[in-house]
Amino acid sequence: MEKYNGQGTFTYSNGDKYVGEVKDGKRNGQGTKTWSNGDKYVGEWVNDLKYGHGTFTNLDGDKYVGEWKDGKQNGQGTITHLFFGEKYEGNWKDGEWNGQGTLTWSNGLKYVGSWKYVNGKYIEQ
Fold this sequence. Notes:
A hairpin with a 2-residue loop joins strand 2 and strand 3 (about 25-35). The chain folds into two domains: about 1-60, no CATH class; about 60-125, no CATH class. The protein has strands spanning about 5-10, 15-25, 25-35, 40-45, 50-55, 65-70, 70-80, 85-95, 95-105, 110-120, 120-125. The protein has an eleven-stranded antiparallel sheet with strand order 1-2-3-4-5-6-7-8-9-10-11, with no helix packed on it. The protein is an all-beta fold.
């Protein structure tokens, strides 16, 4: 994108598409980006990064609804894994579960507690 401002539809050479607000040629404000692989984000943008409240859905049907900062999940959010039937609701930091949250498995079993991502895996605090 060049230095466009306002509302528009942008189709990229790789097949990605963005429909929404642009400021100084960057995604800013409300918009929807659909990637050529089927992933989709609907929500707020700041300087081409997901920021604020938004919903990301991937081709497999996994869905995250919640807060974003600098392109990563940060703050309160919920992710549902369609394939595994799991759902996590709680705090996020830098794209990982971090802090108070609830993990619910497909069989209805729940764990409510504090989480942290360490050495490639989640640990309960």
